[in-house]
Write a structure and sequence with these properties.
- The chain is of the alpha+beta class.
- Strand 6 and strand 7 (249-255) form a beta hairpin.
- The chain has eleven helices and nine strands.
- Helices cover 35% and strands 19% of the residues.
- The chain has helices at residues 2-16, 34-38, 47-60, 64-73, 106-117, 122-133, 148-155, 164-168, 181-189, 210-213, 264-280; strands at residues 160-162, 174-179, 198-203, 205-206, 222-229, 232-243, 249-255, 258-263, 287-296.
- The chain has a single domain (45-296), classed as Putative xylanase fold, CATH 1.10.3670.10.
- The strands form two sheets. Strands 1, 4, 5, 6, 7, 8 and 9 form a seven-stranded antiparallel β-sheet that branches.
- 31% of the residues are buried.
């Protein structure tokens, strides 16, 4: 009886440990050659393939600005979905995940491109993505950089610097912002936080002046599209500056229906067509006012993550 008990106890304990692999287990498939992975657009890669691509790109292109352009262009054609990411499964206020490779919206596209360009592996990319998306890298809906001008641009000053006032020059127009984060979190995410209202004055380059300052833009710079309606201005869209074949400045961004690269003249013209159509139909749609430009910093020192606090009840 004692022997049987010991045998059963041994079987239970063995069930808690990792058993040896069966002799018939198949060896893992050989990884695809990097040449095969490079034939795919980034949005069709698996996370394993994307990690290998990031490592290859980091070794192949030492210039960060060119690496940003190359990685961004690798996603041209990626389908667009608005409001794509959330905090799931870290938080369950919605079911949106922390990353997506197969789709993007404008912010997701820029964040993924920057994070991949700054990384040498999938693990580093995922860490860098959260460092960019969240204030101090602390994951949570309340610490996500929701407001472009007062959250994203400010939290990521280690990465980019706002040069809009310098480019626009003296006498250029600006706009006032009022941000009520507590109200936004409560109404949009059913999350209660005591956060004071913040106000700010923002500079931007009017759309009519973009052609005159375009030559001062550099590859990898961050772009905020400033829209207006009923006297209110806000950053309605974002993207990246890349250089065309003759050095002309292009706008690389994710918008309906997919990621595209175009000249700023083309983007401004399409906005004008949309506004004219809205006017004919009697719609009070938003109008393009101009752009904010943020310079990619030359000497980037990535700050450490702040400690992730233990969630409360």
């Amino acid at each position: 009886m004692r022997s049987l008990s010991l045998l059963l106890a041994g079987a239970v304990l063995a069930g808690c440990a990792t058993p040896p692999a069966p002799k018939t287990a198949q060896a893992p498939a050989a990884p695809a050659p990097i040449e095969t992975i490079l034939q795919k657009p980034l949005y069709q890669m698996s996370p394993v393939e994307a990690g290998r691509y990031v490592a290859w790109q980091h070794a192949a292109e030492p210039d960060l600005r060119k690496r940003i352009a190359a990685i961004g262009r690798k996603n041209i054609g990626q389908p667009y979905i608005l409001n794509l990411l959330g905090e799931f499964p870290f938080e369950v206020h919605d079911n949106l995940p922390l990353f997506s490779l197969d789709h993007s919206d404008c912010v997701v596209f820029a964040e993924h491109t920057y994070a991949m360009a700054l990384s040498k592996s999938w693990e580093e990319f995922f860490w860098m993505l959260q460092r960019i998306r969240y204030k101090d890298g602390v994951i949570g809906v309340a610490t996500r950089n929701h407001y472009t001008e007062l959250d994203w641009n400010v939290s990521n000053r280690w990465l980019v610097t706002d040069i809009s006032a310098e480019l626009a020059g003296a006498g250029a127009p600006g706009y006032d912002m009022r941000v009520d984060r507590a109200r936004f979190l409560k109404t949009r995410h059913n999350t209660v936080r005591e956060i004071p209202v913040e106000t700010s004055r923002q500079a931007y380059v009017p759309k009519e002046s973009v052609a005159a300052i375009a030559a001062q833009l550099q590859e990898g710079d961050f772009v905020n599209v400033i829209s207006t309606r009923d006297g209110e201005h806000w950053a309605s869209h974002v993207g990246l500056v890349v250089l065309g074949p003759n050095g002309e400045r292009h706008f690389l961004h994710s918008s309906e229906p997919r990621v595209r690269e175009e000249t700023f003249e083309s983007y401004i013209a399409r906005a004008a067509e949309r506004e004219a159509k809205n006017a004919r139909e009697g719609k009070n749609g938003q109008r393009l006012a101009g752009f904010k430009f943020l310079r990619l910093n030359d000497n980037i020192v990535v700050p450490p993550m702040a400690p992730q606090p233990r969630p409360g009840a």
